[in-house]
Specification:
Order of helices and strands of chain B: EHEEEHHEEHEHHEEH
Shape of chain B: flat
Number of strands of chain B: 9
Distance between the termini of chain A: 41 Å
Strand content of chain B: 15-25%
Structural class of chain A: alpha+beta
Number of helices of chain A: 4
Radius of gyration of chain B: 24 Å
Oligomer: heterodimer
Strand content of chain A: 25-35%
Number of strands of chain A: 6
Structural class of chain B: alpha+beta
């Protein structure tokens, strides 16, 4: 196995903590993030959640349709200390909105829907250019959100500050 | 030429080092050296993987304008796979056994299979999979529009063979190491352990267990692939027979990996995979993605 592909094995948990952290931020602070350069993006958890099993023998729990974050099953999973493994997110910046399912351990995106093509697009080449810009923007937003998370997560006092607040939220 | 897709799954990769400038003719020349080569008339089971362009599915032309993806470079590669339909083998074997009134021996079955492969494979058309990617040279990032294990492996291998550059998946470790966080935080990132979130369903109403770390998972040890020896009297001495093809030929193994990979959405002319999220459209054909 190459060193590169070991990242999912050794640090996949960090992607799961990142996804759970976004849920926490969305519920407690509204889900608006200011990225570098002053870009403001909003996120919301949509209609699909999968909780990671705490051990290899445990069953993964998936909740779909409606508002799964508001269900008693989701609250119980959080109280039990489960992290999110996958979630479908709405991501918005200005007029543009994407939906994507993040697979946390690998940070790959599934079921992406890009914003509608810009009205100015008159040719297939225009549409390709517009969509390419939207694909890149989505990738960069996810990377920028992850960077925000890391800056908080990797500080030496995280367990007594951010993690403590999140644990209280999870225990509600 | 239709526009690039607007939905589906995507796997980001990073690279280090210098890539040939995609605006230069040399870039197209590199693609051309690893262009797709047809196996339409091949008389054996095989796989062909190579570059084409969105405008020309044959791999014969690599005009730089065909690679124009706006702020990125639009790459497309093609995977053709020719395999013997197992149902045909079964039908012919059943017919042969019925005609002679008894079961065939293992040796006779093998001979029948070889005869049928010689006869039928030239008539079998390969399955075709077309996969797109968007390359952003200034960011050293490429987005692959397929999430099946076999497509990812084929792409990273083809990319390396073309540009001698190893792609790294943008997983939580690599994404952090590539970000602008301080060197100190990167050092911490390499060694960070998971948080053990308290299970408050077990706690008393007034107290909550403290937050603690737990051990970081170790990378799984991958056992070397065991290759079954053919049932012949003479041992296999040619090591090349044991090498894995660039694109998984073993149907069962490939299916298993696709099933496990819940993001698999290989953009295939055939259906190669499944989709993950609810209500998300299953994009089995490139035409559906426009």
């Amino acid at each position: 196995m190459s060193q590169a592909s070991q990242g999912v094995e050794t640090h996949g948990f960090l992607g799961e903590e990142f996804l759970t952290w976004m849920w926490f931020k969305w519920e407690t602070e509204g889900g608006e993030f200011t990225l570098s350069g002053g870009r403001i993006v909003g996120i919301a958890i949509d209609d699909f959640l999968t909780f990671a099993a705490l051990t290899e023998d445990e069953t993964e729990q998936t909740l779909r349709r409606g508002s799964p974050t508001r269900t008693e099953e989701a609250r119980t999973a959080l109280r039990q200390g489960h992290r999110l493994r996958k979630a479908r997110l709405l991501i918005a910046e200005g007029e543009r909105q994407w939906t994507a399912t993040i697979d946390a351990p690998s940070l790959t995106l599934g079921g992406v829907k890009l914003p509608e093509d810009a009205e100015e697009c008159e040719s297939e080449m225009d549409r390709t250019a517009d969509r390419a810009a939207n694909w890149l923007a989505l990738h960069e937003i996810v990377q920028a959100l992850y960077r925000l998370f890391l800056k908080e997560r990797l500080t030496s006092d995280y367990q007594s500050t951010g993690a403590e607040q999140q644990a209280n939220w999870m225990a509600r | 030429m239709a526009a690039i897709r607007k939905s589906g799954g995507v796997v980001p990769y990073f690279w280090q080092g210098k890539l040939v400038d995609p605006r230069d003719d040399e870039f197209a020349e590199h693609l051309s050296l690893q262009r797709f080569r047809t196996i339409e008339n091949a008389a054996s089971e095989e796989v062909s993987v190579g570059w084409i362009t969105p405008a020309d599915p044959t791999g014969d032309n690599f005009s730089p304008e065909d690679l124009d993806g706006g702020i990125g470079t639009w790459l497309r590669f093609r995977i053709d796979k020719k395999s013997m339909p197992m149902k045909w083998l079964q039908i012919h074997r059943d017919a042969a056994e019925k005609a002679r009134g008894k079961k065939m021996s293992a040796k006779e079955r093998r001979e029948l299979k070889e005869d049928l492969m010689d006869q039928l494979l030239p008539r079998v058309l390969p399955t075709i999979t077309l996969v797109d990617a968007l390359l952003f040279d200034d960011r050293k990032t490429v987005l692959l529009f397929a999430t099946s294990k076999s497509a990812k492996e084929a792409f990273t291998k083809l990319f390396f063979e073309t540009f001698s550059i190893q792609l790294e998946p943008a997983d939580p470790l690599q994404s952090g190491m590539r970000s602008d966080i301080s060197d100190e935080l990167k050092h911490t990132l390499e060694r960070v352990n998971p948080i053990r979130w308290p299970n408050t369903t077990l706690d008393s109403a007034k107290t909550r267990a403290p937050i603690t770390d737990m051990p970081r998972p170790a990378p799984k040890v991958v056992e070397p692939k065991v290759v079954k020896k053919p049932k012949t009297e003479t041992p296999v001495s040619d090591s090349s027979q044991n090498e894995s093809p660039p694109f998984e030929v073993d149907e069962a193994a490939d299916d298993a990996s696709s099933t496990n990979d819940t993001f698999a959405d290989g953009m295939s002319a055939e259906t190669t995979s499944t989709e993950d999220a609810p209500e998300a459209p299953v994009e089995a054909k490139m035409e559906d993605q426009q």
